[in-house]
Design brief:
407 residues; alpha/beta; 16 helices; globular; seven-stranded mixed sheet
């Protein structure tokens, strides 16, 4: 296994210094209301989105690389896992121990080590390995993945939460703006600029994630290392380390794959042709509004289309064919033509909507660069406030989860 380079060690220390000031993971789990809501959302994520029901974790040996203050691990423990945790921040380690004592789950915490993930030496292999929000903050994420997956049993699950480069492009632009302004004025207050220019993102993360605004700033903006990981490269890394893609959220799986099980199925196609997830990556890049908002027109047209389809099947009598039963050819042709006319309209509306969004995104990117040249924070903020897509709502995809299993 490769040794950690001097640069990698330096970055690791800088990230640690940043997180000692404000932990990115600390949540108010002591609040019964907050914990109940948090527990419910995490269970939904694993059961409904990642296809990992809580029963998967029962009596399993689990390793968490970069466990932070232990919030996620409390849930794994409640689901019955036996945990080994690795966390470089001593403040976070102390908080983790408090949580496990508070929730009376010390029997599930088999081992917690205050050290770098690259210095950890396991005694056994694990049924499940987890790393959430860590690999995109290290200098060499591939090496981190190697260290993690070499400790995984055959058939065991590898669960990652990280920043894809497409997903975090908009947040990377935030950091680009800060660096641009700092390079021209080293005395600027980064926190104040963040609250001024990126208030929508910070307020949204505060509202839905439960973290303080200071935590968000220190995680998103003052953190010295934020490396967007390319999805295509990640899938290649999976293959090199004998990890097969299993699930993801938001899903990286493209629509339209129909192979039977006698051929390569979805996860095998994704592993063989990782670039096939490009269109999903574009969706991650442009993400701003909730699905039900951005797809409002499509939902309405789809409902109409399904009614036309039902009418086609009913009136042509193709919905229930019996031998020697006459088919109404006139109704079949008439309703068939009506259905496909409506179908083409749906695809046209969807494609035009996406093209319009891409053009608007590009236009706003150009406006941003023009306003940056002024180095005037008020003018930059004025431009950002007028944007329709860039830096709005989700501001890209804040978290990408991807699961694989060892073959």
């Amino acid at each position: 296994m490769n040794k950690l380079s001097l640069k990698s060690k330096q970055i690791e220390n800088e990230v640690l210094r940043n997180y000692k000031i404000s932990s990115p993971s600390k949540l108010p789990l002591e609040s019964r209301k907050f914990f109940k809501n948090y527990f419910s959302r995490r269970e939904k994520l694993f059961h409904d989105c990642l296809k990992l029901p809580k029963e998967v974790f029962k009596n399993k040996r689990l390793l968490d690389f970069g466990s932070g203050t232990g919030e996620h691990d409390i849930l794994y423990a409640k689901w019955g896992s036996k945990l080994d945790l690795v966390e470089i921040n001593p403040i976070s380690v102390a908080q983790t121990k408090k949580y496990f004592k508070f929730f009376k789950l010390n029997k599930n915490l088999k081992r917690i080590e205050n050290k770098s993930i690259f210095d950890f030496r396991p005694k056994n292999k694990y049924d499940i390995v987890v790393s959430e929000g860590v690999l995109h903050h290290v200098n060499n994420p591939y090496l981190g993945l190697q260290y993690l997956t070499k400790n995984l049993k055959k058939g065991g699950f590898c669960i990652l939460q990280l920043a894809f480069d497409f997903s975090h492009f908009q947040r990377s632009l935030h950091r680009y703006i800060i660096n641009y302004l700092k390079n021209n004025n080293s005395n600027i207050n980064v926190e104040k600029i963040c609250y001024k220019l990126f208030s929508e993102t910070i307020n949204r993360a505060n509202k839905f994630g439960g973290r303080s605004k200071k935590q968000i700033v220190y995680d998103f903006y003052t953190n010295p290392k934020h490396k967007g990981i390319n999805l295509r490269k990640l899938l290649i890394w999976f293959k090199k380390n004998k990890i097969k893609y299993y699930s993801s959220y938001p899903s990286i799986e493209p629509e339209g794959l129909i192979n039977g099980i006698h051929q390569n199925v979805t996860n095998e196609i994704i592993m063989s042709f990782p670039s096939i997830s490009l269109f999903q990556s574009i969706n991650f890049l442009l993400a701003s509004a909730d699905d039900q908002v951005s797809l409002k027109k499509i939902i309405k047209l789809s409902s109409k289309n399904l009614k036309i389809w039902s009418n086609l099947m009913l009136k042509s009598k193709l919905d229930d064919i019996e031998n020697k039963k006459n088919i109404n050819k006139f109704n079949l042709k008439k309703n068939f033509n009506l259905y496909f006319k409506n179908l083409l309209n749906i695809y046209n509306v969807r494609n035009q909507s996406q093209i319009k969004k891409i053009k608007q995104f590009h236009k706003e990117f150009e406006i941003l660069n023009i306003s940056l040249k002024t180095q005037n924070i008020k003018k930059i903020n004025k431009s950002i406030k007028k944007f329709e897509i860039l830096f709005k709502g989700y501001n890209g995809v804040p978290s990408n989860y991807i699961v694989g299993y060892k073959i």
